[in-house]
Amino acid sequence: MKNSTSQGRPVLTTVSIALVCLIVVICGMAGYWMQSDMIRKQGQVLAGTATILGERIDRIFFDRYRDFKMLSSMGDLVNGDVSTITRTLKHVQNSYENAYEVLSVTDNLGQVIASTDSSLVGSDFGTSALFQTLQEQREIVIEDDQSRNVLPGHVGYTIGARLKTQSADQTFSGIVFAYVHMSELFDEFERQADLLRQQNPETSDFEWQLIRQDGVLLIDSVLEEIGKTNLRELSLPSVLAIATGQSGYLVETHALRNVKVITGYAQVTGIGNVSGFGLGVLFRQDQKEIIRLAWALQQKLFLVGLGVLMPFLGILIWSRRQVQKAQDSEREAQKVLQRWVEQLNAILESSPVATIIVTAEGHIEHMNRVAEKIFRCMPKQFYGCHVFQLISEREQIDEQFYASWLSTWFSETSHEHLKEQIGVRQDGTEFPIELRVCPLPESSAGVNPSGQLLNKVIMSIQDITERKQSELAIEHQLAHLEEKIQVRTADLQKAKEAAEKANNAKTLFMANISHELRTPMHAILSFASLGIDRYDSATPEKLLSYLTQIKEGGNRLLSLVNNLLDLSKLDAGRMVLDYQEVDIKSLLLNVRQQTDALLKEKGLVLSVDHWTDDTAVICDEARITQVLWNLVSNAIKFTPAGNRITLAFRSSLTRYGRRQSDEERVPGLLVTVRDGGPGIPGNELTSIFDQFVQSSTTRTGAGGTGLGLSISKEIIEAHGGSIWAENHHEVGALFHFLIPIRSPWPEKSIENDDGLLVKAP
């Protein structure tokens, strides 16, 4: 019964739907064919109407042409006086029911001598193109009059003819011309529209238009702006089609109402020598009117089809009800089972634990949303797959566990088995899981051929990644705790050593400063006391020597204080450099003059080696002079009497930028000062540039505070350069400093890495 109902139901439904669809398709195809055919026929009717109106306009032009051919040879106009000509012109105007708006005659010079409009008499018409054309032996000329205002609904043009004289030489005596309007055209359009309404009583009104060759409206049944609106500028397809000279029809979009319309078009081509001026005729009707008629026929055809189909559908419906009764009992049985399944699915889906139902063969039957989430798979992606696909191959369930699992399936008693495994997600990534397995008995219908009750298994899975990570993190922290303690202890030891080193340097500096301050101060006080005690007995030369010693001690104190102030400014980042172009050689000459007395006192020679002539750089003159003074004075201090001090200049490249990682190089000037002293211990070549640090050779008796080289280093680095020392392979020490020829800093005051303010040019 289940198979017959399940098969009969889709057959009946399919047959019913197929019949209805067949009728709909047939009616649709018939409606489409009727609609297309009606549009084609109506388009031909509209095109024919436009052609008839075009021929009518051609006939009107031709009639006026024949009239003027007769007027050009009329004796009253050729030989009559002005009054006769005027009377004749008015008679012609009245005879043609005002077809001629104005009739006029000119003499051979183009002056109007007679006219039905007295305001034109005496006007000069000789410069007009019409007059000049007729003067050149043309008999009759018709011109489209686009310059004169024509009444709405009327078409105006100018016609002229050369007066024919009876003389043998055909002397030109003037022309007769008229302004013509075709007032009957609007009525002709209305008559054609009435004929179409009689032929199609169920359709609405028609629209018509007469346009000039340039697209300007002349006659229109809808628009109010006749003579202003240009349809060619609107790019209407029907207007463009008129230019082909052929009549026809097309479907286009209405320019104002934005609806589909059927437009018939034709061009006024003219008759014989009479031009039609390229006038165009448009006759249109809304396409929806034709579609409405076709739809009405289609509805009738559909109703006829339904009348034929209804009895057959009645039989199908009766059969369907009989089948429905047979299916009711089956539905009731299915509802009970469906409710149980829905309840189980609801429990599984609402569970916060990942749950998988596995058949006795090990195939996945159901996975709840939590399980799909932790395995990162699409819904129902693993349905029907073996459960072992969720277990890593290197961590496959061992045989003992698998055997226990199978025994659980066929056991009637409740049993659980818990084990940690490595799960595999859909994307192949592995993660630790914990499995809990318990049996799920089915109904009595689920028995195998041997009569044993079949079981399914519910697997509860928990992602224990975070737990494993926490365990690993704890182990890692324990493993590295001792290492961290050792590192911290080492850091503390380094900090302690650095503090002790700084304290020692400070103590040494204070000792040197105390000595340097005490010595000149002691000399000043001693010589001042001598001067006070002996001022009345000492000679002027002796007093002068006392004062000189006092001055030298004061200068020494001033130099020491200046060094301390410079060091303070450097530490606080308050020193500003004033950049300008300076020749280093000139600075050296100044230093040489200042130290000349010291050189002569020790019998030293200061020589200069020029390895380059370009010694001009952008720098702070005072600060670079201070550096040269420090280096030269140190060289004098450490060079034994009778030796030589050498200075050298070389062109070189220096690093651009403040960071050690900067690799770009710029042109620079290298200055070297070599002394003839004992040299510098190798382990002190770098430390002598530190603050408060003196070389061991200084402490042997040469003196000094250890500030000069430290200040020099700060000044050179503020210029974007570098300074260093090395020992000569023969004797003495070499001090080098390298600065860029042009300032590498921006043209503004800047602060270097050590906080030093630098004023760039």
Tell me what the structure shows.
The chain is α+β, with helices and mostly antiparallel strands and 761 residues long. It has 15 helices and 26 strands. The protein has a 5-stranded antiparallel β-sheet, with helices on both faces. A 5-stranded antiparallel β-sheet has the order 7-6-12-9-8. A 5-stranded antiparallel β-sheet has the order 14-13-17-16-15, with helices on both faces.
Going by helix content, strand content and strand pairing, the class is: alpha+beta
How confident is the prediction overall: mean pLDDT?
A: 77
Query: What profile does the largest beta sheet have?
Result: 5 strands, antiparallel
Separation, N- and C-terminal Cα atoms: 105 Å
Spans of 5+ residues with little confidence (pLDDT < 50)?
149-153, 443-447, 747-751, 755-761
Radius of gyration: 60 Å
What helical percentage do the residues reach?
A: 40-55%
Biggest sheet: strands side by side, in what order? 2-1-5-4-3
What's the number of extended β-strand segments? 26
How many DSSP H or I helices?
A: 15
The percentage of residues in β strands lies in 15-25%
